[in-house]
Each structure stands twice: as structure tokens, then as C-alpha cells.
Amino acid sequence: MIKLSIIIPVFNVEKYIKKCIDSVLTQDLKLKEYEIIIIDDGSPDKSVEIIKKLMKSNPQIKLISQKNRGLGGARNTGLRLARGNYILFLDSDDWYNPNVLKQLYNKGYKNSLDVLEFGAQGINSDNKIIYTQNTSSNDEILNGIRYYQKYHCMDSACNKLYKRSFLIENELFFIENLYIEDYEFNTRVFYKAKEVMATDMIVAKFYQSPNSITRNFDVIKQKKMQDDIITVIKKINTLYIQNKYKRSNFLSKYFEQRLGFLIVTLFYQLVKNKAPYNDFLLLKERLVKDNIFFTEYSIFDNKKEWFRRVFLKNFSLFRIIHILFKLI
Is the Cβ–Cβ distance between 85 and 166 less than 8 Å? Predict the structure, then answer.
């Protein structure tokens, strides 16, 4: 029986892919208990060559090549092909700590969880830990919305164990060719999930690339990021509206916190990018016109919550900020 399917999208990662795969191969799992599904998303470098060498002595590795469909599209392909009881998504420049996956699977399976969230650490190019994201370990099982309100969650899809049948039955796939597919995906996941728990195990190391979209100041990429965030806001808001007949204060708070975080992120990025004041006005007008300017509920990021309270609730202060920092 295949217990775990580890899905690894690959694109232009020849420097990292062997370390990533080796971290799965050296886990405390028997050969027939897991599969590694690698999706070559049209990678132009030598990643596939490296993978094929590893495949010669590791039959649990499966390689599928496809035209580039982005991270979400690659994960969707892997999810549709997976046979494991539970799913893990692993980015190709990240890796697992030794001998953690068996314990992780056992906790998920024993409790029949839809989602099990685990801890992770961010690692920079000097191999130094730059953050540790801990999760609760009190073994409390909650539905997704109550879990989010009590414990929050990381927005990554790579620090969670997902029950495959739960994802498939609820048609929980990723939006393709989107920068922030994890946030939208997990919003739907936690809305649907009935059995969610956390473990304090630090399972994964996430490589913090200096070229990631959140650290990249390329104008075209930043514009796509803004457009993608607005796309996600609209999709989440559509789900919110569709379920208004179920609406309660608890449910409303969940959706409006998720939406509010994205609204704050849009304006926060403009500040970081030293955008002209007119960009703030145009963005607000666009959001208000589409009835998606969500700023009422507090959010769980302390820095961005301060930003929401001080600036988005008092929008004229943006003008003062620009004057003070000579950004106009």
C-alpha cells in the first residue's frame, strides 16, 4: 500500500534537485510505502538528466514531463496521478529533515485528518536559519475555519500533509500560472476541511531564494503579482458570496480576514516599491469599484495589521507618508 505521494514540480533547478530528492529517499519509509512524483514542467536545464540518473536505482521515482504550466499546473498533474493515502507537496529547492515522514504520516492516518500542518524553517544561501515557523502540538482536532481562527496557518502548501481523497472529492486543485496559488488553494482547503490538526515537528527546510517573486523588483513581475493578487481576491470573494446562505459571523470573519490580508499586501507592496501616490489612489478606486476593498477585520500578521489600522483605515495618511519620505 502506498501511504505517501510526494509531488515535486521541477523547473530550472539543477543546483538543488538532487538534495531535494535525496531528502525523500533517505526517510524512514519502506520502498513500497511511498512514491515520488516529479513533474518536469518544461525545464530547460539539466534537472531531468539528474533525475533520470536517480531513477535507475530508485523505482519509487516517477517522472512526468509536460509543457510549462507553472507551479500550480505541475502540482495538479502530480495530484491526479498520485496513489498515496496522503499527499505532500515539496518544492524542488527545498528538502526534508531526516526521518520525519513516517511519524508525520502516522499522525495523519491515525487521526483520519484532512490536513496536518507541520513546522518548517527558512534557510538562506549561506545555509543559515532565518526563521522558524512553529505550529501547535496540543493534538486538538478542529474544522478548518475554527483551526484558522485559533491557530492561524502558514499559507504554504508545502508545510501540510493532505488526505488525497479529501482533495479529489472536493475538487481542490491549484489555479495554474498564478504567483500566489498556495493562498487561494488553502483558503478553499480550510473552508472545506473537517479534521485539521497541527504537529510541532519541524519537517521541512524552505530555501529562501534571493530571486523569489516577493524579493524581486522587476517591474513586469511586480505588475503580474498585483494582478494575480486581485484575481485571487475576486475568486475568494466569489466563493464567499456563493456561500452567503451559510453565512455566520464566524464564517464572515474567516473570509474577510483572508481577503483583508491580500488587500493589505497590495498596498504594502506599493510602499515597498516606492510607488507614486497616484498608484495608491488608482488601486483603491479599482478595488472599491469592484466592491472588494476589505479592511474591516484584523489580520494575523502584526506588521501588516499595524499597516491596516494606521493607513488603510485612514487612507489620507498615504499622502503624508509620501511627503515624509519624498516618494512623490
Answer: no
| Residues contacting 236, CB < 8 A, separation 6+ | 184, 187, 255, 258, 259, 262
Interior/surface letters 92-122, b for 16+ CB within 10 angstroms, e for the rest: bbbbbbeebbbebbebbbeeebbbbbbbbbb
* Residues with Cβ within 8 Å of residue 123, at least 6 apart in sequence: 129, 130, 205, 206, 207, 208
Which residues contact residue 173 at a Cβ distance below 8 angstroms, ignoring those fewer than 6 apart? 72, 76, 79, 167, 185
Half-sphere exposure at residue 196, Cβ-oriented, CA atoms within 13 angstroms: 24
Structure confidence at residue 322 (pLDDT): 65
Question: 37 has which bridge partners?
Answer: 7, 62
Which class for 154: exposed (0-12), middle (13-18), buried (19 or more C-beta within 10 A)?
middle
pLDDT digits (tens, 9 = 90+) for 137-153: 778 999 999 999 999 88
- Is pTM beyond 0.85? Reply is yes
Q: Give dist(CA 287, CA 162) in Å, integer.
A: 33
